# Entry
Amino acid sequence: MSADGKTTSVIIAGLGGQGIVKASDILASAAHGAGYDVKKSEIHGMSQRGGSVSSDVRFGARVLSPMTPRGGADYLAVTEPTQAAPNRHMLRPGGVLITPDAVPHTAGGGEDSTDLMANRTINVALLGVLAAHLPIAEEHWLAAIRQNLPEKLHDLNCNVFLRGLAIERFMGRLSGGG
Amino acid sequence: MSSRLLTGNEAVALAARDAMIALGTGYPGTPSTEILENFGALGGRAQWAPNEKVALEVALGAAYACGRVLVTMKHVGVNVAADPLFTAAYTGVTGALVIAAADDPGMHSSQNEQDTRRYAEAAGVPMLEPADSQEAYDYMLAATELSERFGTPVLLRMTTRVCHSKTPVTPRGAPLPAPPPGYERDIPRRVMIPAYARPAHRKLREKLSRLADWSEESDLHRVIPGTGDGKALGVITSGVATMHVAEAAPEASMFKLAMTYPLPLKRLAEFARSVERCVAVEEGDPYLANALRAADAPVEAPIEEFRFGELSVSRVQRLLAGETAPEPPPEPGKPPRLCPNCPHRNVFGALSRIGCIVSGDIGCYTLGVLPPFEAMDTCACMGASIGAGLGMRHVLPRQQAKRVVSVIGDSTFVHSGVTGLIDMAYNPPPTGHVVIILDNEVTAMTGLQEHPGTGRRLDHGPAANKINYEALAWALGIQDVHTVDPLENEAGFEQLVRDCLENEGLSLIVARRPCPLSVNRLARMAAECGAPES
# Structure
């Protein structure tokens, strides 16, 4: 989508406290590091009290509006299954929906630090899945994770990211896609 | 110099540092809050004021003394600061005074969607309006220069999407050298008794006429040719709307305004006449459309529907196509709610059980209006809970009057509740009144900012003083004062409210329990500093 110079639009959505803004910060940094023009937009405030939160990240040769037009998102990643329905109208026909189902629970489940579904890393796990589809090299993603998170969380989040990426690439090969 | 991704608020803060702003002050308010926080983090001298009026007055004094100052607030804060603003336009400034005011079209986190451009015109203060973070940076610097050059306060109008969107910013290489502060007496200029204010008003209008000439000449405004022949469609716009227009109608020629007051009316009229169809696309009131049509420029105003809410690419497309069919309603998301361990929950649970008429106020606790509590009856503006509660008590029949309580947060109380409490002491209603300060020891709603009642400065370090609300009430003449922890003693809190209502005197209840989010953050900060956690 961005190979021809057009703008790629990603929406990351979930509930307050799930690290939506942090995830979109990482995506925006990665795209910026890769040399794209980037705009990112979300709403702070009331929505932070556990309500719905969504963030738009758009990148390409030159991005105009910071907000994705209705039906204009190439990707919609949701950290919480219930947030797919209220945001689906933003996805363009043929756009890709990424839900927590894209990453499996590992044995043990719950708040195990290696569990991709753990609430505090689900955002970065889904970025890994998303990364399999985007023209941004791995190094920019890892640099962006380090830039946007405190040092003690770097290893955990880089690992979670890479596992999300590996799973999606494997699934892509299975289905004969990307 | 390479670019970095910054929010509009971060960009204003960075520009404030590069403009050598000596002092930043303001009151937190979404979406403006992070400007001062970032200015402080960059090493600037930043402080929270009790409210926007005080912030602007402090800034005005600093600017009389040749200092460079930045004041930040949200749009409704401008109402509070309006009193000094209008007369500051008369006195002018010696240093630089920039007021960053952030509008919230669509009311993502506000009680109204007033348009601050009206204030620029009403007070006679020039206004710059950035469209993205680079312009937020550039215009903050330009506003500082303009303020010094013309000796006037300058408004920087931000909007939610400009404040909170991240876009690349390339900062200027070198700082803007600042003159040293110093005071020169000039009584007729700064003492606004009628004899001096009359000539000052005339001088202001002359100054605005010079500013209008500057606006006509300024290359901050830009005419951007469209991909079409440049004749069929022209759009006059400003702020983030310019980005929506560029995407929605790339074929249109665009007059992108940087200064929205005073407007370059001659150039705009010329532009409007150069195209077959000219449309004013603006977020908020039809401010541009009205000004242009008053200047006899052939400009089309959008239908009334587009004065409501934010614009977007899709909405601009509809606007330009002249679509009048109803727009698709926004998809309902999950509404916000009080945090699971929030002490306000117990307060609203009790007020709901007692059957109070709750005169509410602005903050997280406004969420007490939503289910399961539905324990709020009014909420108009900062501090209104006390006055509105008193008003109801004055006129309601006794049995209803006795159920009225005013509920106000600690930060809101400091902001504009104190004068309400004074009125309660001075003009007590026949059935008395009960005020509950929900003291969670932080300005929680806007993201956990400090205030004069927390005992901590903007940077969360210890402050010089901490307000004692109980002693303050005593000093005003309110003697029935109680302090209770609503989380630890829910039943006791409920009984206390019942007793106070029954007594028909003047009561203040301080429901004190720190916000759990704030407690966590303070512990985290202490751990990061290596200090023992309390």
Chain B has a mean pLDDT of 96. The longest strand of chain B covers residues 96-103. Chain B touches chain A at residues 3-5, 30-31, 108-109, 132, 160-161, 164-168, 240, 243-244, 246-248, 312-314, 317, 328, 331-339, 364, 367, 445-447 (CB under 8 Å). The longest helix of chain B spans residues 194-217.
